[in-house]
Structures are given as C-alpha cells and as structure tokens.
C-alpha cells in the first residue's frame, strides 16, 4: 500500500483549516457560549448578568413543562424514526423489483428531500387544515372530528406525518444504495434452494443492510431531535396545549420568545448532552449487532 507524503508540513493544516474553522465557529464557539450562559442569570437585553451556578439546571429539571417536552420528544422521535425508516425500506425494496423506469421512480422519491422543513410543514398544514384542507374533507366525511389545531393527539399525528414524509427520501436513497451493494448471487442461490422472497429478505438482505440501517438510525434520531423544529414551528408552534412542544422547540420558546436566557441555555446544554449520550449508546451497544459483510 502506497502512503501519501506531503512535502510541506503546513500543507495538511492548510487543507484542514476551512473545516476546522467552520467547526470552531459554528459548533465549539456556540457550545462554549451556551455553557457560559447556562450558569448565569442574564437580563433579557444583556445589560447585566449574575453567576448562579447550577440553579438554572435545577429550575429546568423541576419544571413540569420541561418534563412534558421531554416526554413529547421521546414519543415524537421514536415515531418519526420508526416510520421514516420502515416506509423508506419498503419503498426501496419495491423499487428494486421494477424492471423498466426504475430511475424515474427513484428520482420521484428523492425530490421531497429538497423541500425545506418549514415548507414541508406548511404543505401538510394546508392539506389537513380543518377549514379548507383538501385531505381534511374526506376525514370529515368518515365522521372523524378532525381539528389538529385543537386536538393534541391529532396535532402530534400531523407533525409526525410531515416529519416522516420529509425524511423518507433521505432514508430511501441510502437503502437503495445498500440494496444495490448486495451481491445478486446470494439471492439467486437462495432462490435455487427454494427460499421465499420474504425468507430471503429477513435472512440475507436485511442482515447485510444493518450497516446502512445503523447509520440511518443515528441520523434519524438527530433529525427528529433538531431538524424538525421548522416543521413544528410551521404546523403547530408547539400547541395545542404544549402537546407538540419538543425539547428543541422549548429552547426556542424560552430563549427567543420569553427571553429567559439562562433557562434556555441550560436546556440547550442538557439537549446536547442527551444527543451525545444517545449517540454513544447506539455506537456502544447497537453497533454490536451490525454485520459488516
């Protein structure tokens, strides 16, 4: 194996400098600022600040509204990750069976990922608006009292559907790539041995897809925790009655709406710790079941 040797010692650092600068400016610096603000009680206009230690964290963890946001986040994240990955895997398997026009269908499936989260939320809000939504009318004809603006469970179903639809395309792309990497000879051998398609999928295809599935599990978890802010803000704004207020949306509410800077910073630090711990747990325990063939 040949090794690449840089003749100039500064060249590697120059090549890494843009990425290091972006990481420092957009991650480490905001994280350090959040840590600093989390131990301070600040004036909303930044005119004065008082060091309070861990008082902000104690206040946040004893706040029923924050505990409710944590519960909503768990339910929302599990539903979005499960449905987004399951539907994407099903569609990827079905597209692989198509002989003609396979590329056309793949392109159609990828398009929704280009839609911004806020736009995706508005699309679903317009379709299911209780007053004029095109898909709300059939629900009323079925006798369903559909009004996600007043019903918390319906609001949760709507934001889960919007967030799932937005993420399916991303998952679909990786599942298709994973399916293409599986040797066809293995499936042909299973068919010769008399294995059904369902049996071949669960014993051959899905185990070989576990690296892709594990990667998407981590990505979808982070997506549900952070990137769905725009969808929730556009569709429900955390309502009704905080039924769709996730942890990241509560950070926004307390920090930018109510101007409680110390509590908002403490919540952002807690959320960051949760994400790091959850990702470490996934790599530590779930990755053991991943088969890298």
TrEMBL record:
It is a multi-pass membrane protein. InterPro entries: MetI-like (IPR000515), MetI-like_sf (IPR035906), UgpAE/MalFG_permease (IPR050809). It is found in: Cell inner membrane; Cell membrane. Residues 74-282 form the ABC transmembrane type-1 domain. One of its GO terms (biological process) is transmembrane transport. Pfam families: BPD_transp_1 (PF00528). GO terms for cellular component: plasma membrane. It comes from the Bacteria. Keywords: Cell inner membrane, Cell membrane, Membrane, Transmembrane, Transmembrane helix, Transport. The chain crosses the membrane at residues 69-92, 104-127, 155-179, 200-226, 265-286. The complex is composed of two ATP-binding proteins (UgpC), two transmembrane proteins (UgpA and UgpE) and a solute-binding protein (UgpB). Belongs to the binding-protein-dependent transport system permease family. Part of the ABC transporter complex UgpBAEC involved in sn-glycerol-3-phosphate (G3P) import. Probably responsible for the translocation of the substrate across the membrane. PANTHER family: BLL4140 PROTEIN, SN-GLYCEROL-3-PHOSPHATE TRANSPORT SYSTEM PERMEASE PROTEIN UGPA. This is sn-glycerol-3-phosphate transport system permease protein UgpA. It comes from Pseudotabrizicola alkalilacus.
């Amino acid at each position: 194996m040949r090794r690449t040797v840089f003749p100039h010692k500064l060249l590697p650092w120059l090549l890494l400098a843009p990425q290091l600068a972006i990481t420092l400016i957009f991650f480490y610096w905001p994280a350090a600022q959040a840590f600093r603000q989390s131990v301070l009680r600040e004036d909303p206009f930044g005119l004065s600040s008082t060091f309070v230690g861990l008082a902000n964290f104690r206040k946040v963890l004893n706040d029923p509204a924050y505990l409710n946001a944590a519960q909503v986040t768990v339910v929302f994240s599990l539903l979005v990750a499960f449905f987004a990955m399951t539907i994407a895997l099903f569609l990827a398997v079905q597209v692989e069976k198509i002989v003609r026009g396979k590329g056309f269908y793949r392109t159609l499936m990828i398009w929704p990922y280009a839609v911004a989260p806020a736009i995706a939320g508005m699309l679903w809000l317009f379709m299911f608006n209780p007053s004029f939504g095109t898909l709300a009318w059939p629900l009323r004809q079925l006798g369903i009292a559909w009004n996600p603006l007043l019903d918390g469970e319906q609001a949760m179903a709507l934001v889960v559907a919007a967030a799932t639809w937005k993420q399916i395309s991303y998952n679909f792309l990786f599942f298709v790539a994973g399916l293409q990497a599986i040797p066809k000879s293995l499936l042909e051998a299973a068919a010769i041995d008399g294995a059904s398609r369902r049996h071949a999928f669960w014993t051959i295809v899905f185990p070989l897809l576990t690296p892709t599935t594990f990667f998407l599990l981590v990505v979808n978890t982070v997506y549900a925790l952070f990137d769905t802010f725009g969808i929730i803000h556009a569709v429900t704004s955390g309502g009704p009655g905080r039924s769709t207020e996730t942890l990241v949306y509560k950070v926004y509410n307390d920090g930018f709406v109510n101007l409680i800077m110390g509590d908002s910073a403490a919540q952002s630090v807690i959320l960051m710790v949760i994400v790091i711990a959850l990702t470490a747990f996934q790599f530590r325990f779930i990755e053991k079941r991943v088969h890298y063939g």
